[in-house]
Amino acid sequence: MFASIPSLITHTRQPIIRKSSSCKASPPRIKLMIGNSTCEEIIARRTANYHPPILDYDCVQSLRSDYVGETCTRRLDELKRVVKTMLGKVRKPLDQLELIDVLQRLGIYYHFEDEIREILNIIYSEYNSQDEWKNEDLYATALEFRLLRQHGYDVPQGVAV
Predict the structure, then answer these.
(1) Where would one find coiled-coil regions in this protein (predicted)?
(2) d(CA 31, CA 12)
(3) What is the pTM of this model?
């Protein structure tokens, strides 16, 4: 009985999958080899069939924006100063993390990278302490974990909540 088991094991083989593309114009094929027999299957790929753009490149380049100039630049600098003071005034760690999250979601966080880095350094230095603001608060713990990980801090994933 046990003598036949090794013969069964030696005759079973794992399938080998190889991609074959003999011609670039032909659709991609998968060649499946089991033992000495081969089988080829054609992969059907979807095409996008996008319509051509309505406006050509020169037309898009000729468009002007009303938000360029000295007045808009001044207003932008003023708003940046307001947000920087907001980042400096917020003291609660959860409020700081929420403000950083909002700035990221708005896509303007790159204007405040230095301030965000300072805040996250302080939060990371106190990461292992059992603070009241994140005790039994899954939202606060998850937000802290995600933001620290996104900004490259080494935060272990196995910390108990």
Answers:
(1) none
(2) 19
(3) 0.58
Give the max Cα distance, the chain: 91
- Average pLDDT per run of 10 along the chain, which is 161 residues long? 45 49 56 66 72 83 81 92 94 94 95 95 84 81 92 79 47
CATH number of 70-151: 1.50.10.130
- The CA–CA distances, whole Å, from 15 to 19, 35, 113, 149, 154 equal 13, 8, 52, 40, 41
Query: Is 25 strand, coil or helix?
Result: coil
Q: Do residues 117 and 151 touch, judged by C-beta distance below 8 A?
A: yes
Q: Tokens 């100063």 — which residue?
A: 81
H helix or E strand, kind and range, residue 142: helix 138-150
Structure tokens at 69: 């100039």
